[in-house]
């Protein structure tokens, strides 16, 4: 089958480096393979309705469209994390219905030979269902949370990590000046990669992860000990998905792509610490600041490598695969590997042991670093 027309979309939460992938894919697709590349607006929204209009709308992408975008955050194609054609609910509707056949019909109407879906676990799960319906799909893994299986790293993580680290550095200055306990909440719904790495890089005193349910008493004890030693401030990094032992993460009303919205993890820790320590406390929630802005050089390069590899995978007709970073090389892996199991922090991994060895608390009362692998 000669490939002539390929669609490209970005799905799920945005993430620095998306435009680097789009740029690389369009450049390689057009320059090396001579393809027509269709830019689908707002994830599957643009394939549900071919006349779909958000600010820009669906369009055929030319080389000019991707000039000067490698340093841009966000995505020139727009995105959505509320658009699953298998469980579709239009704005204002509560009932969901399966409109995947409509998407298949539009895919054929556009005479597409393949679709490249740049997304996280939700987008990859939807892509897999369309593969089973006969769509020819190649995936590209993205998420600042870095929790997608099948790849050693997703692009966007490095940028988010650097933003969070810089924030901790800034917070340390003011924490020290005011002798305060500062809690910094970072993103990470189910996986604490940003919290663990930024906490270590920023020299945090405690790091609370979704993978290690916490108790507040060991944290309070750490704060009291530091005070007794003359260290009058403490920095606690809290992943948004952190949960107390025997409890759940801090979900609020509303949902994101079928999952509950998380909010209030660090405030909950502060409220629980309040009666246990005599300290002035402040909470900073970094939120979407971690998702915007220029990607780091690392994420630009990883995004570029993923975009180029996705084009090669399409050209080789290796559908049902995803570009992935494996031990320094970018290659195609089965897309099912990405969705089989999320990539979470192993509570006994070397990085956690290193942090424990340095005296960082995880709120589980353990200071055991003899488990070092
Ligand atoms: O999956 C990435 C992520 O940034 C999560 O860490 C966070 O919980 C979620 O997206 C936030 O999504 P939204 O932009 O819809 O609030």
Strand and helix layout:
Blueprint: E1 5-10, H1 18-31, E2 36-39, H2 45-48, E3 59-61, H3 100-109, E4 114-119, H4 121-132, E5 137-141, H5 157-178, E6 180-186, H6 193-201, E7 206-208, H7 216-228, E8 234-239, E9 251-256, E10 259-262, H8 265-273, E11 280-285, H9 297-315, E12 321-326, E13 329-334, H10 335-340, H11 350-357
Parallel strand pairs: 1-2, 1-4, 4-5, 5-12, 6-8, 6-11, 7-8
Antiparallel strand pairs: 2-3, 9-10, 12-13
Helix pairs in contact: 1-9, 5-6
This protein binds 6-O-phosphono-beta-D-fructofuranose (F6P).
Residues 13, 81, 120, 143-145, 187-189, 240, 256, 262, 291 line the site of 6-O-phosphono-beta-D-fructofuranose.
Q: Can you give a write-up of this model?
A:
This protein is α/β, with parallel strands linked by helices. It contains eleven helices and 13 strands. It has helices spanning 18-31, 45-48, 100-109, 121-132, 157-178, 193-201, 216-228, 265-273, 297-315, 335-340, 350-357, and strands at 5-10, 36-39, 59-61, 114-119, 137-141, 180-186, 206-208, 234-239, 251-256, 259-262, 280-285, 321-326, 329-334. Helix 1 (18-31) links the parallel strand 1 and strand 2. Helix 1 (18-31) packs parallel to helix 9. Mean pLDDT is 95; it is low at 369-373. Residues 13, 81, 120, 143-145, 187-189, 240, 256, 262, 291 line the site of 6-O-phosphono-beta-D-fructofuranose.
């Amino acid at each position: 089958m000669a490939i002539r027309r390929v669609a490209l979309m970005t799905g799920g939460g945005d993430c620095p480096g998306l435009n680097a992938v789009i740029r690389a894919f369009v450049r390689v697709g057009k320059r090396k393979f001579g393809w027509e590349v269709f830019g689908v607006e707002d994830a599957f929204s643009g394939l549900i309705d071919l006349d779909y209009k958000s600010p820009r709308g669906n369009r055929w992408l030319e080389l000019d469209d991707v000039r000067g975008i490698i340093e841009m955050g966000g995505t020139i194609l727009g995105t959505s994390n509320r658009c699953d054609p298998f469980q579709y609910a239009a704005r204002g509707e509560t009932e969901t219905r399966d409109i995947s056949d409509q998407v298949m019909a539009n895919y054929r109407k556009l005479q597409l030979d393949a679709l490249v879906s740049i997304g996280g676990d939700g987008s990859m799960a939807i892509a897999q269902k369309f593969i089973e319906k006969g769509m020819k799909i190649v995936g590209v893994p993205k998420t600042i949370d870095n929790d997608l299986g099948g790849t050693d790293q997703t692009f966007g993580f490095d940028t988010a990590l650097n933003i969070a680290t810089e924030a901790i550095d800034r917070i340390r200055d003011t924490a020290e000046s005011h002798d305060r306990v500062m809690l910094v909440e970072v993103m990470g719904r189910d996986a604490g990669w940003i919290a663990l790495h930024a906490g270590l890089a920023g020299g945090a005193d405690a790091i609370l992860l979704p993978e290690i349910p916490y108790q507040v008493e060991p944290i309070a004890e750490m704060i009291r000990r530091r005070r007794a030693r003359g260290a009058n401030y403490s920095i606690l990094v809290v992943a948004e998905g952190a949960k107390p032992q025997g409890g759940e993460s801090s979900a609020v009303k509303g949902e994101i792509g079928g999952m509950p919205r998380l909010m209030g993890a660090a405030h909950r820790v502060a409220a629980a610490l309040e009666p246990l320590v005599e300290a002035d406390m402040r909470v900073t929630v970094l939120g979407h600041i971690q998702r915007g802005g220029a990607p780091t050089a690392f994420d630009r390069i990883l995004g570029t490598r993923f975009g180029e590899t996705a084009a090669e995978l399409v050209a080789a007709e290796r559908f049902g695969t995803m570009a992935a970073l494996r031990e320094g090389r970018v290659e195609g892996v089965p897309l099912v590997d990405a969705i089989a199991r999320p990539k979470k922090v192993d509570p006994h991994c070397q990085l956690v042991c290193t942090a424990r060895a340095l005296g960082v608390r995880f709120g589980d009362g353990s200071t055991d670093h003899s488990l070092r692998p």
